[in-house]
Amino acid sequence: MEQPIIITAEPTVTGRSSFLPRVYNWMAAGLGLTALVAYFTASNPALQKVVFGNNVVFYGLIIAELGLVIVLSAAVRRLSATTATVLFLLYSTLSGVTFASIFLLYTSSSIASTFFVSAGTFGAMSLYGYATKRDLTSWGSFFFMGLIGLIIASVVNIWLHSAMISWAVTYLGVFIFVGLTAYDTQKIKMLARSGLTGEEQQKAAILGALALYLDFINLFLMMLRIFGRRR
Question: Once rounded to an integer, what is the mean pLDDT over residues 137-164?
Answer without folding.
Answer: 90
